[in-house]
Amino acid sequence: MVSELRLFVESTFQEKAQQYSAVLFSRGVVVNVECVEKLNARFLRLNPELALCVDADGLWLSAHGMKMQPDWSAEISRLKRASLKSEMIARACHLSEKPQLIDATAGLGHDSLLMAHLGAEVTLIERHPILFTLLEDSKSQAESDPFLSQVVARIHLVFSDSACYLKQQLEKNQMVDVIYLDPMFPQRDQNQQAIKKQAQVKKQMQLLHLLLPEDGEMDLGDHLLTLSRQIATRVVVKRPKYAVFLAEQSPDHQWQGDACRFDAYFQHDL
Predict the structure, then answer these.
(1) What is the mean pLDDT of the chain?
(2) What whole-number distance in Å separates Cα of residue 40 and Cα of residue 30?
C-alpha cells in the first residue's frame, strides 16, 4: 500500500492542500506538499510518477499524464437516464424494494451512486486511505449539488477493511438485504479475457491499478463471497461476461449483459 506521495498544488489552493494532507496523515499516508506554478497537462507529462494533486476540482490522483478522481458529478446524465427497468444492476440487486445494501468493493463509487439513486441505502466500504479520501471528497462536493445531494444522502462511507467489517456484522448478527461485490482484479478466466481487457481499461482504472496492487492485500479473493453469504439475503457479484465463478460457487441466478454479468446468490435459510 502507498504510504508516502508527493502532493502538487498551485499557490491559490495551498490551504486546501494542507487540509487534505492532515486528513491523509491521520490515515497513515504521508504527503509531501509541493507548490507548483501551473498544474496543467504539460506539468503532468513532465512528472509522470504517481502523485496527488489539488486544484479547484478538489483532490485527485495523477500518473503518466492521466488524471483520476471519482467525479460523481460526471455521472449525473447517466443517473437521469437510469430507471429500475433499464438497469440490469437494479434487477440483480432488487432495488425496487429499496434495500439496505453493502458495497464491499467501492472502486470509484459509481455503482453505489447508481444504486442509491435507484432507491438503495448504501454502505460503501473502502480500506485504502487514499481512495477513501478521494471518495469522501467526491461525496462532500456532491452534497452541494441540487441533484446529487438527495442521492448521496443515501450513501454512508465506512473506512474499513471489508472482510473485517462483514465479520463484525456477523458477530453482531446484523443481517443485511444485499451485499454487492465487484472485484477489481477478477480471476483469470479460461479464455484469458482479463488479460485482453488490461489493454483496454479506461484511464481512471489504469490509475487505480497503479494505486492498488493486484497481488496481496488488495486481492479480494473468494473469502468475501463466502463471508457475505452468511449475512446477506442476496449477494450480487459483478463479473466480466466470460469470467469463472467467484470462489467456484455457482450462482442461483444470473443476469447477462454484453460485456458483464451479475451472479446472484440467495440466502435460503432465512
Answers:
(1) 89
(2) 24
Residue 187 clears pLDDT 60, i.e. is over it: no
Count, residues in the chain = 270
Indicate whether 143 and 28 sit together in one domain: no
Q: Are residues 96 and 169 in the same domain?
A: yes
Torsion of CA 243, 249, 253, 254, to 10 degrees: -10
> And the C-alpha cell for 216?
496481496
Q: Where are the alpha helices (DSSP H) in the chain?
A: 14-26, 41-46, 76-81, 88-92, 110-117, 129-142, 148-152, 162-171, 193-198, 203-211, 223-228
Residue 141: which CATH number?
3.40.50.150
pLDDT tens, residue by residue, 205-253? 778 778 876 544 444 557 899 999 999 999 999 999 999 999 889 999 9
C-alpha cell at 24: 491523509
